[in-house]
């Protein structure tokens, strides 16, 4: 009786076969030694064919999906090309440019207006300060005149009292 070969030995003996194929080979050897029936062999052949069909199925699915994806990418490219060059897009682009120009004009206008307002505020503050100084000087002069008026009033009152006393 022959000794059963290990997977490592089979890999060395058949380096170009896959692991699955080596398992099938090893299983065939086992069945031959055990005197397996023909029906079992036929069943395994059908399983192998199913496996091949399974791979073929997935390969076909992959190719179909790949083709659909390429078609979709092509359509997307066409839609983008048409969309970018359509009259509506050209009109919208021109509107955007007009709005940008208007924005620059308005910005410059409002900057100038803002600067003018700051200058008016500065002028107003300067006038306010000069008015406060003038008001302060006028207040001082008013105080001086009131004191002088009071002195003159006191002097006149004294003269009037002395004239009344003298009999005039």
Label this structure with key terms:
168 residues; mainly alpha; rod-shaped
List the helices and strands and how they pair.
Elements: H1 7-13, H2 19-34, H3 38-85, H4 87-166
Description:
The protein contains 4 helices and no strands. With 168 residues, it is mostly helical.
Order of helices and strands: HHHH
How many discrete structural domains? 3
| Overall form | rod-shaped
Ends: how far apart?
175 Å
Q: Average the pLDDT over all residues and give the rounded result.
A: 83
User: pLDDT below 50 for ≥5 consecutive residues: which ranges?
Assistant: none
| Major pleated sheet | none
Q: Helix/strand/pairing class, anyone? A: mainly alpha
- Rounded Rg: 56 Å
Q: Percent helix among the residues?
A: over 70%
Portion in beta strands: under 5%
Number of helices: 4
Topology, number of strands: 0
In short:
The protein has 168 residues and is mostly helical. It has helices at residues 7-13, 19-34, 38-85, 87-166.
């Amino acid at each position: 009786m022959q000794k059963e070969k290990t997977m490592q030995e089979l890999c060395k003996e058949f380096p170009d076969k896959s692991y699955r194929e080596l398992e099938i080979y090893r299983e065939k050897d086992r069945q031959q030694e055990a005197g397996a029936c023909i029906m079992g062999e036929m069943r395994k052949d059908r399983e192998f064919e199913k496996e091949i069909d399974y791979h073929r199925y997935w390969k076909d699915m992959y190719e179909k999906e790949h083709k659909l994806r390429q078609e979709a990418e092509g359509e997307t490219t066409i839609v983008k090309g048409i969309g970018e060059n359509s009259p509506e897009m050209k009109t919208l682009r021109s509107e955007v440019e007009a709005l940008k120009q208007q924005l620059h004009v308005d910005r410059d206008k409002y900057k100038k207006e803002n600067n003018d307002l700051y200058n008016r505020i500065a002028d107003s503050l300067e006038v306010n300060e000069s008015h406060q100084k003038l008001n302060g000087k006028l207040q001082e002069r008013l105080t001086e005149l009131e004191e002088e008026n009071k002195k003159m009033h006191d002097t006149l009152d004294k003269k009037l009292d002395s004239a009344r006393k003298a009999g005039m």
